[in-house]
Structure formats: structure tokens, C-alpha cells
Amino acid sequence: MSTELEQIRESMAAYLTGKGVAAVTAWPSGARTWGDGPAAVVSLRSCQAAGSGLGDYLGRRYDEESGAWQELYGKRLEVALGLDLWAAGAEGARRIQESFEALLQALHEGAPEGLKVREVTCGETEYDQASGWMVRRVQMVCTAHLYAAAEEGATFLNFEIRGEWNG
Q: In DSSP terms, which residues pair with 115 in a beta bridge?
């Protein structure tokens, strides 16, 4: 079972791949599958959580499906994701530039559900001595809202990632 932060990384990799930018999550459970690049490696650089209400309490809602009232709790996350672009070979730098432009276009069109892009920054394309590949470090800062529902007197149901809370 993946955590909410793993879900954010996985959904960003899937979103970028769906927009034509090869992307994988950092530290995947299996072997890397993208070949010699270019590919964006999605990692978590930092995360800061803030409460969204008194004791994270947002209020109550009536769940028509269960016929019961649910209490809502939530947090606001500021997440910095690494979207580092890697490519091998003599054409690596050119391929990284093309991939970076496609990445910016994909983020201009939107983001995975529940994430709001606030800023994207990058460094120069450099040669990574350890891997022998070219790399451009890219960082995206985004906002997400996590919320969980609990039936009265019960334990929490799963947290969900939401762009905003609409009670």
C-alpha cells in the first residue's frame, strides 16, 4: 500500500508519461525500464504540512451512500518534487532540452488531479560523472490538500488527495 506522498510521485510520473514525457519514480521497486533516456525521474525533495482547520477538523458532511454523517479532517501540503531529466549519449543535452520543453508544456496544461503547480525551476544541463549521463535538475513546487472522512465515533477512512476542500 502506498502512502499519500508516494501517490503524489506516482501520479506525477503517470501524468507526464500520458503527456508524452517519459517519467519514472525515483527508487522504483523494479528495474528501470526507460532505456537511455530522456526521462524525468520524479522524487520527493521536501514536504511541509499545515492544518486546514482547528485540530485539522473541517466539518461534517452527510454521506448518502452510507446514510450516515461523516466528520472531515484535512491538511494542506506544500510539496517540492524533483523532476530531474536524464539522457545518455552524445545527443543527451539536446534530448534533455526537448524533453524539458515538453515537460513545461505538460505542466502548463495542468497537473495530476489534486495538485496545483506553483513554480518550476531548473539548473543547467550537466554531465554526471558517476553515471556517465547528462542531467538537468528540475524542481516543481505544488500545493495539495489531503482530507479524510470518519464516520461519527469511528476511525478514519483513507486520506485522499484533493486540490481543495469543497464541503
A: 144
Q: What's the CATH code of the domain at 87?
A: 3.30.2000
Is 9 buried (19+), middle (13-18) or exposed (0-12) by CB count in 10 A? buried
- The answer to whether residue 167 sits within a structural domain is no
Please tell me the total count of domains within the chain. 1
Q: Is residue 17 part of a domain?
A: yes
pLDDT of 29-83, one tens digit each? Answer: 555 556 777 899 999 999 988 766 566 666 777 888 888 888 777 778 899 999 9
Whether 85 maps to a domain, the answer reads: yes
What pLDDT, in 10s, does the model give residues 53-65?
Answer: 566 666 777 888 8
Report d(CA 39, CA 42) in Å as an integer: 9
Whether residue 154 lies inside any domain: the answer is: yes
- Coil, strand, or helix at residue 137? strand
Q: Work out whether strand 39-51 and strand 23-25 pair parallel, antiparallel, or are unpaired.
A: parallel
Q: What's the pTM value of the predicted model, to 2 decimals?
A: 0.76
Q: Domain of 83?
A: 4-162
Q: Is 105 helix (H, G, I), strand (E, B) or coil?
A: helix
Residues 150/61, Cβ–Cβ less than 8 Å: no
